[in-house]
Design a protein that fits this description.
Blueprint (H helix, E strand, L loop, with lengths): L1 E8 L6 E7 L2 E6 L9 E4 L4 E4 L1 E6 L8 H13 L2 E6 L10 H14 L3 E3 L1 E2 L1 E3 L4 E2 L2 H6 L4 E5 L4 H14 L2 E5 L3 H4 L4 E2 L2 H6 L3 E2 L2 H17 L3 E4 L4 H11 L5 E6 L1 H4 L21 H12 L5 E3 L7 H4 L16 H10 L6 H16 L15 E11 L11 E10 L4
């Protein structure tokens, strides 16, 4: 048995509590628990107990699916306190046959038990060939992912397959034609830098279309990494008619804005792009209103050789998972926008519920003892020049990972 003393539990107010753990489960939460048989006692005075993070939108480095890069992602996620994650299917080679899928969901998942797989709906966007969705789903994958701006009839067929197999559909909403080869947000900064911009209407119009399809087919749909107030509002309005529609926003769109791209800073080149300061403020307002269901670190690391180039040629992406919780604490909780309870809800509880995994996501009696002890008093300065947060001060660090694998 293990005993955590004097922890402030995210979601249970300011009062300190003890957490008694037996055989990997939380046996009791209370005040001044006595445990003569405990082999370990941790004094968590000043620390916050935070549930293991669940992120539904992580990618391997350079989107190249190799064993070393899976190992790299897995270790980084563990270090960042992530206890479950969905591996984005936007990888090379594409998972498109039973043999490859069986390898990933069989042998590799034994090595990476906290990883969940998704499949791309299309084999090839140029030829619009559908992947073998039915076969792959029957073999154990329950998440299908695709961009919204594919042929409308193909999107309809994907929804029909999803309804038939009762799987989740993850969609990234953009319209490449409306984007008109843009490389960052269309606004003051893009104009000043002389770079083609990405209009907000590309995201908004696609969200409106997909939301209608989601409601029509009654298919649970996650709208990935939204970046505009109107898109979030559209998803929330649709939720009034069909509750299983979810709005995801990245921490970066709540912490940064397009000014991070000044000086042609390719390390701030994200997709969707960082928007205006007003857009950021509006997204924070939507978060306070309860219209954002979950967060993502949008972890999509790119090698320097893909970033240290002209802005228009640089790849989209950011390496951020290891600092995910300090970023969220610094820019959301310490900044006074939301409290610990809301942060735990959008970083752990809600994404776990969307995945249908009730063994993680909250700290409660009877649940698996998988949580973090976080010190909000710790300070650090981001020293990596390859980060859009370079030079910024962050608060908090994870000091214990209870129940995580070694």
């Amino acid at each position: 048995m293990r005993l955590i003393r004097n922890a402030r539990i995210a979601g249970l107010g300011e009062e300190k509590r003890d957490i008694l753990i037996h055989q990997g489960k939380i046996e009791k939460i209370g005040k001044k628990i006595e445990c003569g048989a405990c082999f370990e006692v941790i004094d968590a005075d000043g620390l916050v107990a935070f549930p293991g993070i669940v992120d539904l939108n992580l990618r391997v480095q350079d989107d190249k699916l190799t064993l070393p890069r899976l190992q790299q992602l897995y270790k980084a996620a563990q270090k960042g306190g992530v206890v479950r994650f969905v591996l984005s299917p936007r990888v090379t080679p594409l998972m498109e046959n039973q043999t490859f899928q069986a390898l990933l969901s069989g042998e590799l998942q034994r090595d990476f038990p906290n990883m969940r797989l998704a499949i791309k709906a299309l084999k090839d966007a140029e030829t619009s060939r559908l992947n073998d969705i039915s076969t792959l789903i029957k073999n154990g994958i329950h998440i299908v992912q695709e961009n919204s701006d594919i042929n409308g009839n193909l999107l309809r067929r994907i929804y029909e397959y999803s309804k038939m197999h009762k799987n989740l559909f993850f969609v990234f909403c953009e319209n490449k034609i409306l984007n008109d080869s843009g490389v960052m947000n269309e606004g003051e900064v893009s104009f000043r830098l002389g770079l083609p911009g990405i209009s907000k209407i590309g995201e908004i119009s696609e969200v409106a279309k997909v939301a209608q399809m989601s409601m029509h087919y009654d298919v649970p749909t996650l709208f990935q990494a939204l970046s505009t107030r109107r898109a979030v509002n559209l998803v929330h309005d649709a939720k009034n008619h069909f509750p299983q529609i979810y709005a995801e926003v990245s921490i970066h769109h709540l912490a940064l804005d397009e000014r991070a791209c000044d000086g042609f800073n390719t390390y701030a080149k994200l997709n969707p792009p960082l928007r205006t300061p007003q857009d950021r403020e509006e997204l924070i307002a939507k978060l306070k209103e309860g219209k954002i269901d979950l967060l993502t670190a949008l972890h999509s690391p790119k090698s320097v050789l893909y970033k240290d180039v002209a802005f228009s040629e640089a790849k989209y992406g950011i390496d951020t998972i290891e600092r995910y919780l300090p970023l969220a604490y610094t820019y959301l909780v310490k900044a006074g926008h939301i409290g610990w309870e809301k942060l735990a809800e959008i970083m752990a509880e809600n994404p776990a519920q969307i995945l249908g995994e009730d063994d993680v996501g909250e700290i409660a009696e009877g649940k698996n003892a998988i949580f973090l002890l976080f010190d909000p008093r710790a300070e650090s300065v981001v020293e990596e020049k390859t980060s859009p947060y370079a030079g910024k001060r962050l608060w908090g660090e994870i000091v214990h990972r209870i129940g995580f694998e070694d």
